[in-house]
């Protein structure tokens, strides 16, 4: 059942919140031994929350728009009573969190039921979904393949239909990559739109939190529930609530939609080309807009990511270098040695690049681009061939997402159900226009062009 269907059934007395919770816990128990998407299952907490919702309904009290809906969160979100491991070995020594992350509080205020914490790449520095401490989260359509990262457990859990909604983070593509590989919908909101309070950071100037779901309506329901200012996150907007659910069915014929050209049409496998082509054809667009200096934007994003990440982890690198994933440790050490003038240039370029997109969005409402260059690679795959060049998989899966995160634009990743594996397309909008990206995604879903396929690997 979708989140919307569960909430409707629970609010209408046709299903108890406890029954919905028990069904999710049963699915997790049955399938997560294969998917390895969960690191913690909060069964007692979930049952207590569900019983409280059922008691409110019995007493005639109003319940929220997500009443009884099970959800889970990437394990970099603080969950009261759990250590916030952020995919690492080192963080397991932290004291248990005393309070939930703001977004968990808001989801539960809307009636949702937290059922656990999810596997992820160490310290969110990953595109594969592989974790040396907890093992890889697996692709629900072919368990020999990657789930994507770093929110791999989130993608695997929703793609595998263990929960209808999960939360993750996206610094350079970590919501959009798992969405693409696992065949689900994901929303990276505008930078600062959703609070990051009480979540473990990676790159504070790029970090976004957002939802995954199996339908656009569920994605919008979760997003709307989490909106709002939060003084506990200095980067969080002071804008008021801007609900998107009431706008989903609005027509998209008035929108100016274009295909991102140049850089975004290179370094792609045939399946990525086909996915963008199907989406563009359904939307009736052939216009191509070149995005200037996107390759340089990706390079600048790398510089800022690795240096901010290195600064964050410098003490841990000095004290416990052998407790890191070696691949993560080595990139962070390299980041610590990047000369300051390069970082300064990257930040100056970032301002210029943001201004270029501001110009683009004066004549275009939506840009279409690949979410990943290919469908999910095999677990452990080291290299792939992009435009006749052998490149490392781990570093290049996010080749089309990084230039967008770099300036904090809102993006909905939509799954195109190709055979044998799905792949995602990015629907990119101007800052604060999540409503437009979601409208386009909803229109595509109604046309049957995008959808979350049933898990094939379970």
TrEMBL record:
Domain of life according to the entry: Bacteria
Sequence ranges of Basic and acidic residues compositional bias: 132-144
One Pfam family, short name: Amidase
Region (Disordered): 132-155
SUPFAM superfamilies attached to this UniProt entry: Amidase signature (AS) enzymes (SSF75304)
Presence of keyword Hydrolase: yes
GO molecular function: hydrolase activity
Keywords: Hydrolase
Amidase domain location: 20-435
InterPro entries: Amidase (IPR000120), Amidase_dom (IPR023631), AS_sf (IPR036928), Carboxybiuret_hydro_AtzE (IPR014087)
PANTHER family, sorted: GLUTAMYL-TRNA(GLN) AMIDOTRANSFERASE (PTHR11895:SF172), TRANSAMIDASE (PTHR11895)
Listed NCBIfam families: amido_AtzE (TIGR02715), PRK09201.1 (NF006631)
Name this protein carries in UniProt: AtzE family amidohydrolase
Gene source species: Bradyrhizobium niftali
